[in-house]
Amino acid sequence: MAKSASRITSSAIEKRTVRTPLRRKNAELRTREYLTDDEVQRLTQAAKANRHGHRDATIILVAYRHGFRASELTDLRWDQIEFTSASLHVRRVKQGTPSTHPILGDELRALRRLRREQEPKSPFVFTSERGTPFTTAGFARMVERAGIEAKLGFKAHPHMLRHACGYALANKGHDTRALQAYLGHKNIQHTVRYTELSPTRFKDFWRR
């Protein structure tokens, strides 16, 4: 009798399989994976209305200007920023190539103010009220909320800012190799996507 019960229990356990729902592809959720410059500006303005508006607007600006991944951005430290020379030492993940980027005036002023007002002080640039480093999940939630407030019409996520950087620079006519170095791509095939969709690629097609 005990053996029979054991077989029934074992059979029941084997048949209890849990099927996780398949994640829909990004292409099914939105028509594109990047933001335009105008949408980035709207996102930044929406973030300024947050409780920590200056921090949130600055984190979006820095992510966009330097094509940061979320993990690279949340790990950004003050010792990577040289205020005197207005330069940023970029460290990349995924075996990406490190580089040094210039910091434009508006970004430099925003970072100076952020460092001046940061309490408690931290070696990390972007922190929470408790002084702990801003998390990638927290960054994602903030971007999503700002996207809703900005009425973008689709769900915004942090990686769209990295893609926005790539497309913006490609639209300005920067060559693929320079763009690859700026974004830290190990494989140039990851960079080609930006130049392939750049409208400047076909700018002379209808000129005589």
Automatic annotation (TrEMBL):
Listed GO MF terms: DNA binding
Keyword Kinase attached: no
Residue ranges constituting the Tyr recombinase domain according to the UniProt record: 30-207
Stored Gene3D superfamilies: Intergrase catalytic core
Single biological process term from Gene Ontology: DNA recombination
InterPro entries in alphabetical order: DNA_brk_join_enz, Integrase-like_cat_sf, Integrase_catalytic, Tyrosine_recombinase_XerCD
Top-level taxonomic group: Bacteria
UniProt keywords, alphabetically: DNA integration, DNA recombination, Fimbrium biogenesis, Transcription, Transcription regulation
Family, as annotated: Belongs to the 'phage' integrase family.
Name listed for the protein in its UniProt record: Tyrosine-type recombinase/integrase
Source species: Bradyrhizobium septentrionale
